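Changelog excerpt

This revision adds worked examples to the README so contributors can see how folded entries look when concatenated. The first example is reproduced verbatim below.
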Amino acid sequence: MTYIPPERDDALDQTRQLEFTPPPMPTTGDGGPVDPFAGQGPEAAAPAEPAATRDRVLFQFIWEAILLLLTLNALFMVYRDEDALFGDEFGTLVDALDPHALYLTPVLLAALAIGLSLRLGAVNLAVPAVAITVGWIAGPVDANLWVHAGFVAAAAVVAALVYVLLVAVFRVPPWFAGLALAAAFMASAQALERLSESRVADSVAMWDPPNGVYVFAGAAVLAVAGGLIGLVPGVRDGFSAVKRMADGGERGAGAVFLLLGGTVLSMLLAAGAGFLMFAYTLAPTTEPTSLGFGPYGFGSAGVDLQLLAFVAALLGGTSLWGRRGGVLGTVLAVLAVWAGMVLWNHDMTAAGEASWQDDYAPLIDVGILFVAVFVSFALDRLGQPKDAVDPDEGVYTQEMRPFEPTSNGPEGTGLFEPTLPDANAHQR
C-alpha cells in the first residue's frame, strides 16, 4: 500500500521564513548591554571628575638644599682666601661685604626681573636693556635724584604697557616684543642725553652709598616673598594661562591682567637695578679690583648682565617653560656665582693676560649657562604633576547592568519572561 501525502495548504504552512526587521536591542542608561535574565538594577552613576593635579615642589626644595650646600662651600672658599682676595683692598672679608653686597644687589634685581618674566611664560628680553640704559647710558632727567627715580619708574610702566599691547593685542611673540623694546631703549639713549643736558643745569649730587648688606637683604626678602607667592596653586595656574595666551591660545581677561601686573613689576625691578647703579656710581672699572666681577669687569673678567641674570634665574630653579620656580634658589645662585667670579678673577689676575684662565674664561661662562639650562630642564620635568589616567572613550568598561522586562516581555524585542512556562511545551 502506497502512502500519498495530502496536498500542502499554503495558508497553513508554518515553515516559511518570516520577513521582518528586528527592532534594536534595549540598552541601559550608560550604553551597556541588557541582561534579560536579571531584575532591574540601580541606575549607573555619572563618572566622577578627576581631582586637580598639582606641581610636585618637593624636587625644587631638594635642589635648593643642594644649592645651599654648594653656596656655603663657595663662601667658605672665599673666607679661607680672604687675605689674598681682599687684604690689599679692604683688609678683611667683613669690610669687603658692604661694597660687594651693594654691587651685587643690581644683579639680584635683574635676575628677579628676568625670572618673573620666565615664570609668566612670556620672557622679556628688554629687562637687561632697561637696567643698562638707566644705569650707564642715559643721563638723569632732573638734578633731584628722587624726581629722576619717578621718571625712571614712569618709563618702566610705559614700556610694560607697550609690551603687553604687543603680546596680548597684536599677538607678537614675547621674545620679539622684548627685543623690540630693548632696541627702542638703546636707540633712545642719545635723545635722553639731550633731554638731560637741557633740564639739568648743575651737576647731580649722588647719594652716599648705604650699607650694602642691608640693601642686598631687602632684595633677598623681596625674592623670597615672590617665591612664596609663586607656590600658590592658583597663581601657578594663572602663569599657565598667560603662557597659553602668549603662545597664541585663548585670551582671557585674567591672563591679560596677570601679564600686565607681572610685566610692570618685572620692568620696575629692572629699572630699580639700573637706578641703583646710577645713583651709587656702580660702574665697570679697568683697575684690578675685586669689585670688577660680572657686569663691572672688562675683558675676560666681565660677564654680560643679561647672561648673568639668566644664569642666576635658571640655576635657582626657574623654568624656561614658565609656571615653575623656586623660593630661595635665585638668592643662593647669585651668591654662589658671585663667590665663583671673585675666586676666578683673582686667579686670572694672578696668572696674567696670556694665561689659559684668561683665554677660556668666556667659554666657561657659556658652559655655566648650559649647566643652568640643564638644571631648569630637569626641575621642570620633575616638577610636573603625574598624568591622570583618563577613561577610554567609546569603550564600555562597566559591568553588565540588569534589565527587568514587562509582564509579557518588551513589545517587539523578542524577550520572554523566564519564569513563565513555555507556551509550546505541550505541543512537543
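The second example, added in the same revision:
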Amino acid sequence: MKKSLRMGGIVATAALAAVSLAGCGFGGGTASDGADGKATTLNLLVPSYSDNTQGLWETVIKDFEAANKDITVELEVQSWDNLNDVVTTKVQGNKAPDIMNGGPFAGFAADELLYPIEDVVSADTLGDFQDSFVESASVDGVQYGAPLLASARALFVNEDLLAQAGVTKVPATWDELLAAATKVSKIGGGVAGYGLPLGSEEAQAESAIWFYGAGGGFGDATEITVDTPENLKGAEFIQKMVEAGATQPDAGATDRSPLMDVFVQGKIGMIIGLPPTVGQIADGNPEMKYSVNPIPTMDGKPFTLGVADHLMAFQNDGKKQAAITKFLDFFYSADQYVPWVTAEKFLPTTKSGSSAMDSNEDLLPFLEMLPDAQFYPSTNPKWDATNAAFKSLVGQLAQGKDAQAVLSEIQAKADAG
C-alpha cells in the first residue's frame, strides 16, 4: 500500500507542490448548506491508491447523488506525497474539506476540528466496523476516524524450497522459523531461508513483526515504549537469525520492495508479505507454489501487523452534519463499499464487508488474521520521530551492534520527539 500500507504506518509525507487531479479548492463552510433550499455541497479530499482511485470514487458519487438529489459531492484527488501539504493549507485558509481520506488524524482531533465518528454515521454503520480497528481510530477514547481500508501481513512460503530443504511443516514459532530458514539457506545458489528487510523503507514494519511477536510493541497513544525486555528478546532473535545464516546477506541495508522481487523470483524461502503480494506472484511467477500463513511468533500465539486508513469529517461551520452522515452511510453499505475496497486490492474494515469477501481465496488468510491485528501507535504525537528512528537505526542489529544499545538509541530519539 502506498504511503506510509505502506502497510507501514499510514503516514502521509509532505512533499512537492499540490497538484489537484480533480475538483478545485474547497470552501469549507462557504458552500451551500441546504438551508436555503439549494443543494448541499460536500467537499471530498482523497489520496490516490491506484490508477483506479478517481474512477472508483466518481462511481460512488454518481450513485450517491442519484439517490440524494439535494446533495452534490466535489471530489479532489491528490497524491500521498502532496496530501499532507494540501490539507494543511486548506485548514489554515479556513477551507477544510468536509470529508477526507487520510492516515493520521490525531492533530486535527486535538485542535477540535473533527466530528466524532458517532456523530456522522448511523448506529448500524458504527457497529459494523471491526472491533480491532476502533482503538486505532480513536483518541482519548473517542473515535474520530472511520476505518476505510486495511492491510495485514502474513508469512509467504515458497513450498518448493521448503520441500527441497526437507522442511515438512510451516513454522509457527521463532525456533521453528530459525530451523527451517537455516535449512533452506543451505540449498545454496543464492537462496535465502528468510527475507529480513531492515533497510530504511519499512524497518519499522519488520521490527514490529519481531517486537509484537515477543509480546512487546511500540507503545500506545500516550507513551512510546521501545526499550523493553520483550522488545529486546525480539531484537536479539533477529540477530540470531542473521548470525545463523538464515537470512539474505546485508539484511541491515535491504529494503522490502527489492527483497520481495527476489522472493517472487523464487530465491527466498519465506518472507512477510501483504495482500498485493498475491498479485505480484501472479504477475511475476505464476508457476510458484506458495502458501500464505500466520506470522511465526515466539510462542506461536496468533498475531498480524495491521494498518488502516480512515475517513474523517471536518466540522467547519457545523451545517453539513446531516449530509456527511448520509454520504458515509451510503458509502459503507456493502453494495458500495465491497466493490470499492476489492478494486483497490485491500481488506475491508467492516464486518459486513468481510462476510461478503470471505469467498475470495486470495484474501481469506488475511481476513482471518484481522481480529488479531496489532497497530502502530500512530495517534501518539511522537510516533513520527519513532518511525524515523527505526528507519535509520534498527538496521544496526544485522550489523552486529549490541541489541540493547540499539533499542536505547531508538528510545532516546522517540523521547526527544
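Reviewer comment on example two: The longest strand covers residues 304-313. Residues 28-152+306-374 form a domain with the D-Maltodextrin-Binding Protein; domain 2 fold (CATH 3.40.190.10).
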